[in-house]
Amino acid sequence: MITLGMAVSPLAFATNGDEMMAVGSQSTALGCSCGAHFMGAESVWANPAMLGKSKGSEFVGGVVSFTPKVNNTGMPGGAGTDSTASTSYIPDLSYSSRMNDSMTYGVSLAGIAGMGVDYKSANPLTHIQAKSALSIMRIVMTMAYNKDNYGIGFSPIYQTGSLMLSYNNGTAYNPTESKDSSNSFGFTLGGYYDVSPALTVAGAYQSKFAAKYGTQISGAGAGFALPAAQNFGDDLDQPAQMKLGVAYTMAESFTMTADYKLIQWGSAAGYKDFAWKDQTVIAVGAKYAANGYWLGMGYNHANDPIGTLPASTAGAPGSVAYKNAAVNFFNNMFFPAIVTNSYTLGGGVDFSKSVALEASAVITPKVTKTVEVASFGGSGTNTTTHSQQSYSVSLRYKF
Q1: pTM score over 0.85
Q2: How do residues 295-307 score in pLDDT, each as one tens digit?
Q3: Which secondary-structure segment (H or E) carries 68?
Q4: Residue 216, φ and ψ in degrees, nearest 5
Q5: Of 282 and 225, more confident
Q6: Cβ-contact 273, 330 below 8 angstroms
């Protein structure tokens, strides 16, 4: 599991900020609206308490193919150029087993966050030939307790991540593309309550994960002439999250799901220094389950979490205008996590009582963002566009 997890692409993109919208084909198909809906062993990624609804033992393994398309105009006055970081593959593995009538345990591993661009082949006259790569993997252990109509779950989590920043703006920064890693621990606590046999409500809280990646960020800032007093720090914590969910099943075959999630980028070290704001995520889904197959669709909306600072007036290094221009540029060029709307669909088929195959697809329309970078000269703006598609497939084995 660890070997497969380390295969997470450092160029992975994500829908909600830099975090993957969902883990697993079934959750993805429903737009990640599964905080109150049981999906099997991979339920721990949405709400660890939902393992309390499991029966027997189960293993799920899958892979996601991301195909983002990102374009950026580079330095002011430059022409739009496509990033060559166009495809990445992210694995996920989950196992759960019921111990007795009230207790279930599980273990899971997945790539859960990442972002990156590659403009190394861009025109050096108008671009800084930048490359970025952030990738994060988590290993989750879960214990879930359940009674007839409620359950709680707790997951201690180990996180490991890596970050690499490289560019050439006349002076090469990190030309060998060396990366730095960071390891930390956190947890998720969740619960659910069956209001009736058809209606379930649930909630979950995930802690922040502290992270510091060597001097990747501060070194990149210094290369843009940011003085020490204004330079970026190297902390880049993954933020805490809070989630509320509801699921309603009609006639034992048609289920409606909805989640509300708050991702606290605005108070996460590193992200708040780059003007990121708290992000609200609204997700809804619909699932039809028949004998031997299921079909699902969903919608996920998340506001752009990246703030834009005023930088319409040129300023020398050390000025507020110059620092604001640097923040705007770094966000828009290196970390364009600006997509907002995603449309999802998927399905699964049982080959036997033990084996099932599931798949899903996500379509995220193009978003365009222009920021002020007047201190860097030229037209004084930088524009990026970002769209993405992803496809996942999972194999489920029950025993």
Answers
A1: yes
A2: 999 999 999 999 9
A3: strand 57-72
A4: -55, -45
A5: 282
A6: no
- Report the alpha-carbon distance of residue 277 to residue 194 in Å, rounded: 34
Measured on CA atoms in the order 228, 233, 212, 335, is the torsion positive or negative? Answer: negative
Map tokens 């990026």 to a residue: 384
Distance CA 60, CA 398 (A): 9
| Cβ atoms < 10 Å from Cβ of 191 | 21
- Three-state DSSP at 300 gives strand
One DSSP character per residue, 99-158 reads: -SSSEEEEEEEEEEEEEEEE-TTS-TTT----EEEEEEEEEEEEEEEE-SSEEEEEEEEE
* Pick from 157, 225, 214, 212: nearest CA to 186: 157
At 378, the pLDDT band (50, 70, 90 cuts) reads: low
Distance of CA 179 to the CA centre of its chain: 20
pLDDT value of position 274 = 94
Residue 264 CB coordination number (10 Å): 20
Report the first-to-last Cα separation within the chain, whole angstroms: 20
Which one-letter amino acid corresponds to residue 81? T
CB 384 within 8 A of CB 333: yes
Q: Which of 159, 161, 163, 156 is nearest to 132 (CA)?
A: 163
Burial of 340 (0-12, 13-18, 19+ CB in 10 A): middle
Segment holding 322, helix H or strand E: helix 320-334
Exposed/middle/buried for residue 208 (C-beta within 10 Å: 0-12, 13-18, 19+): middle
Place of tokens 């007036």: 313
* AA identity, residue 115: M
Residue that the structure tokens 């703030």 belong to: 307
**Beta partners for 134?**
115, 163
